[in-house]
Amino acid sequence: MKSLSIETFVEELASKAPVPGGGGASALVGALGVALGNMVGSLTVGKKKYADVEADIHALKAQSTKLQNRLLELVEEDAQVFEPLSRAYGLPSGTDEERAEKAKVLEEALNVACSVPMQIMETVGEAVTLLEKFFEKGTKLAISDVGCGVIFCQAALRAASLNVFINTKLMKDREKADQLNEHAHALLRQYRRRTETLFNAVEDGLVEHK
To answer: Could you tell me the fold of the domain covering 22-193?
Structure first.
């Protein structure tokens, strides 16, 4: 998936093909958000005005590159975990034995299918922390890119959560489903507030409020 051209990825996303889907798109959007923060770092490095934070910026850029790559890997992994789930829905269910086997396979596939969007949420959360630091230390000439990056990350976070919830909704093991839901909600609570705060800070620095 990650080796597809942008045009092909979008065409595949718009088609009836099972992958890519919302999870993979969430990871890609998250990677774009991280990359925008990384760009702010690139524009800061080498500027005399920011010489005292240059080492910090280099460290932030290295972390950003790592997260970018991880999120692109998650685009691929989301496609990989969805395929077993897609096959599970198509299993025969004409007899009691077939229905029992289908239920077992489906439950396992649903559990696995939750894992990647949850990882997307966690990784995007790490990206939000980096964007906060780029806002604090990076060049103010690229402040708008921090805002773009954080709103992309917020979108990725919320979109990935829906891919958790759609799978937990169908799980028979409600205790496990509730645990996954609570973890996703906790990530939403933590990072939605922080993304909104950061976006508002960027906007306040750019827009003259009357």
So the answer is: Four Helix Bundle (Hemerythrin (Met), subunit A) (1.20.120)
